[in-house]
Structure formats: structure tokens, C-alpha cells
Amino acid sequence: MKTLDYYVVDVFTDTRYKGNQLSVVYADEELELNQYHDISREFGYSETSFVHYSSAENVFKVRSFTQAKHEVVGAGHNLLGAVCLALLKGWDIFKGHGSEPYVLIKDDKIPLQITDQAGLPYVGMKQSPAEVVKTVDAEIIAEAIGLTAADLNLNGWNINIVKTEVAHLMVPIKNKTLLEKAVSHKNLLKAASAEFGFEGCYLFTTNDIDAEYIAEARFFNPSIGIDEDPATGTAAGPLAGYLEQLGYICKDHDCRILQGEYVNQPSVIHVNVTDGGVWVSGSSVIVMEGKLYL
Predict the structure, then answer these.
(1) Are 171 and 198 spatial neighbours (Cβ–Cβ below 8 Å)?
(2) Is the alpha carbon torsion for 78, 107, 110, 220 positive or negative?
(3) pLDDT digits over 8-61, tens only?
(4) Please, which domain of life does this record's source organism belong to (predicted)?
(5) For residue 101, pLDDT beyond 90
(6) Which residue of 2, 81, 199, 289 has the smallest Cβ count within 10 Å?
């Protein structure tokens, strides 16, 4: 009977049992598609990442799946947790990369920055520059999240689909009280996602520019089986890019986004908008490990 090593890490945190849970499976070769799906469903987390180091290509390769059989790409918690795990376990995954480490998620090359923070690996993932795709009517989204259109009026900002790698809907919320009040009406969100061409719905409200967190956020993505995600790097990057385009934050300035408060898994996502793209960064900790039987 074949076995695979697995690990569970908490991502975008330096504290166990906080952050976003991620299962990571080390597989020396590609699995059958149904095996990826079955294993991801068995773990039951929002995403499961499957990793291995390819000696032929000299690169660490990652594939990630949700419980709903959706393959996830982009530089999010699924990638950050996998890279942090490799560093925590001492795996040599950057052989021959020199001063410019990177990994592959499916077929996409993601540049990385590796430092240390409080004894943990601190990993930055570079996303593409933020692109505003289109605007969505407030009435449509308000109904889908149990609020009114007036509740979505924050500084007069539009509800925009913004993309760095994955297109997510940025939904400004007037204040934290209303952010907490929001609920996901799954069928309405799925319908809006299909109609307008976005993947997840990133609700956010802003704090003062000098506050500990520039924004607090929640993420609903029922279309791929995620009711509420505690940390979403692929949405935090677009939000940072959007806030920079609005003039709310400056380029080359480190900011932090708090997510996961309302599911008791607070996560801290570091973002920095540069001319070349958006850096999304954080740490992870290992919670458990064991053997998986195929």
C-alpha cells in the first residue's frame, strides 16, 4: 500500500490554531485527478496543496484543490503555506536559483522573497499589478450579502472586480459593524459570480492609515466550495492594488490586512504595492503531520 507524507499548517499567522488551515501532501509524482479530489475532500479544509521538488526542472512544484474539485492557482495561502512548510522542514527547494527564488503553481512561475521574522520563515509572493476589470451594481451585491446598497458606500468607492492573478470582487463596507453583519447568500453570490466573471467576494472596510491594520476583510466564495475563508492572499493582493489606485495607500509601503476575525481564525496578510506588482507576505506554523494511505 502506497503512503504519502502529509502536513497541516496554519497560514498567515505565527500562532498555532489561528490563521488559515492548509493541508499539504508531498507526492513524488503527479497523482490521478480523482486522487487530488478525494484527498482534498477528505481533509475538509478550504484548500489542499500537493507538492514535490522536480530535479529535472530544478523547481518546487505546487498544485492546489478545493473540496469542490476546483484547482486553485495564484499566490494565496495555498502557496504560502506550502513554501513555508518546505523552509520549516529544511527542504532544499531553491537549488540553482541564486538570489531570485521562485516556485511553480501548476504552470505559473511565482517569484518569492525569503526572510526571517521572529524565528519563522517570512515569505513574500509577487503577484501581477492590479487591474480593474469592471464595476458591479451595488444593489445586486448588497442583496447577495444581506446588506443594503447604502451599507456599501465607503468613501464613494465603486464595487469593482480587480485582478492580479485571480479576479475577485472588491466590496467596500461602510464600517466594521456592517462588515460583521454581512452573510453569504450562496445562490445569489454564485449567480453574480457567473454573470459578471469574478471568483470570490472580498468584503472590506478601512481603518485609519496609521492603524495597525489598513483594512479588515471577509471572503465568501461559494462557487468553489468556500463558505468563508480565514485568509485569502489572492484577494488581498487585488485589494492592496485597488487601494493604491484610489490613492488610499502609497506604493512601496508595507500594510497589513486583518481577515478571519469572524470565524475565530484571525489572519494577518502583509501587502506592498510596487511598480512591478503586489507583494503578499506572511508566515506559517506546522500543526500536525502524518501518513496518508492511497
Answers:
(1) no
(2) negative
(3) 999 999 999 999 999 999 999 899 999 999 999 999 999 999 999 999 899 999
(4) Bacteria
(5) yes
(6) 2
Task: List the grid coordinates of 253.
Answer: 509601503
* 72-87: pLDDT as tens digits: 999 999 999 999 999 9
**By the 8 A CB rule, do 128 and 164 touch?**
yes
Counting every residue, how long is the chain?
294
Q: What is the pLDDT of residue 115?
A: 96
- Averaged pLDDT for residues 263-284: 98
Does residue 193 contact residue 185 with C-beta atoms inside 8 Å? no
The domains found in the chain, sorted by start residue, are 3-127+282-293 (3.10.310.10), 131-275 (3.10.310.10)
Write the Ramachandran bin of 86: left for phi over 0, alpha for psi from -120 to 50, otherwise beta: alpha
Percent of the chain residues past pLDDT 70, beyond the cut:
100
pLDDT tens figures, 207-236: 987 789 999 999 999 999 999 999 999 999
